[in-house]
Amino acid sequence: MELRRLLLRTLPLLAGCLLGQCLPYLIPQPGVSLHLFWLPGPLLLGWLLSLPLHQWREALVAATAGSLLALLLVPAAAYAQVLTSLGEFSMVAMFAWALVRWQQQRPLLEGYRDLTLFLLMGCVLLPLCCAWWYALANGARISSVQDLRGLALGHAVSYLLVVPAVYNLGRCFRSPQRRQGWHLNAAALASVLLALLVLLWTVDWRDGVVTPLLSLAPVPILVWALIVFGVAGASVGMLLVAALGSVLGQYGLGPFGFWSPERNLLTAQTWTIGTGLALLFLGALSDQKMSSRIKLHRAYQRLGEVTGRMLVVQEEERTRIARDLHDDINQSLAAISIRMSALRHQLPDRERPIVTELQDQLLAVSNDIRSISHELHPSILRFTGLASALDAFCNKRNARGSLRLCCSIDCAPRLGEDSELSVFRIVQEALNNVDRHARASVADVRINVQGNDVVLRVDDDGVGMSSSGSTRAPGLGLISMEERARLLGGSLQVSQSPLGGTRIEVRFPVPGTRPQAAAAQ
Asked: Which residues cross the membrane (predicted)?
């Protein structure tokens, strides 16, 4: 298992560096002596920034192995080229370490200050150092300042495009919340849009006014990718669009194909830098919102876990109190009643009614304690099931109060002791809310099975929920019902009832039919 994880972490980087070393020799580039994009260094930087420090050695070994394999697979890849890459990897590791030290557990491309630092270090200083090192190792190919400037600009564009794409893809694979927009329909639509862009850019537009406007065509696609796929999708889209524009420009096609190949490449790189910077800062704003939503979701999950544990502790405490009331206090009252019966037979006849009256009061107190004990922990659930327990509860409420309850229970499967207790508590809390707030005369409790779901509805004919009430924070009773519904694997909804008051509806899957994804959550 550990070897499998190691291969998953290193093989993509090894293959990427190998491909990056071979591409300049496998793809013809008419009129340009330097590569359009440089993949190994930016790929390694993005990979290092997305990994913890203790896994950096594995990434560096994989990148080095990929570069060395290029000597065997592509003989044209000169020794100096590989030596240049190894030196660049050393500089990449140093710059990555400096960025991580500055980052201090914060997302790298999320804050504007951190993003500015990355642009200065990763897209200005590092490309300049790489161009200088490349000039030293390949002096024969770098014959002028113009070549050195073009090399530095090519490295800057490569780092600007590849590093955010690799880094954000790594964050997406580690966080399922960042992949919410990733589905088959969106991917198919993205492919169609990219194909339309390729078709639009490969047409030979003779009109000199229309062709420059084609450079604006990818902007809506990139914004759409940012909205649907997040920063990772926008970064990958920007990388694909920039590569497409640069390659087509070398063949005189697209919005960057008007002049010589060198000037076309310079135009494409300038457009890429401007659009890439704008997209990065726009993505930082989107990433901040996404991080806030993820933090809120995690806080809600922790709150739900704490509330769930609190409900469990509450039930345990209720059970203990109910047992103490029933077994200890009621037994003590029964013993007192027996002693009073013995005392009554020893008293004169004229004093016996007083003792009898005290015994009747003692019996009423004992019945009240028994009723409280059963409400604290309905033991009838364990022996007869939810339907009988709710029916007995409704009958008892009808006998002692003015609220008339109608119970209709159609729940064929046994839900399990914990689930039935949660449903019972939801009904109990909902009816308590009706008693306290609704000023209702009739309440209707219905439980039935609809497909694979159990549906509980509690309706009343009370005053309902006022329009201003929806803006107030929910009470503890409603929070408790929502949490119990969540523990059941379902949800709770509050709406207007057909009776004129409020409807509490809880819908949850029948045990045994719950999807695996929902159960895992």
From this structure: 34-53, 60-80, 86-103, 115-136, 148-170, 182-203, 209-232, 239-259, 265-285
Measured between its terminal Cα atoms, the distance across the chain in Å is 24
Fold of 381-520: Heat Shock Protein 90 (3.30.565)
Cα(45)–Cα(94) distance, integer angstroms: 10
What is the phi/psi pair of residue 460, to 5°?
-145, 165
User: Cβ contacts of residue 454 below 8 Å, gap of 6+?
Assistant: 411, 415, 423, 447, 448, 490, 507, 508, 509, 510
pLDDT tens readout for residues 475-490: 677 888 888 888 888 9
Maximum distance among all alpha carbons in the chain? 129
Residue type for position 413: P
Is 242:219 a contact under the CB 8 Å cutoff?
no
pLDDT at 35: 57
3-state SS class at 187: helix
Enumerate residues 6+ apart whose C-beta is below 8 A from 447: 386, 387, 390, 408, 409, 410, 411, 423, 454, 455, 456, 457
Give the DSSP H or E segment for 178.
none
- This prediction has a pTM of 0.68
CA 445/CA 457 separation, integer angstroms? 6
Ranges of each domain in the chain: 381-520
**For residue 457, what is the enclosing H or E element?**
strand 453-460
Alpha helices, H only, 324-416: 330-346, 352-376, 380-384, 386-400
Q: Three-class SS of residue 497?
A: coil
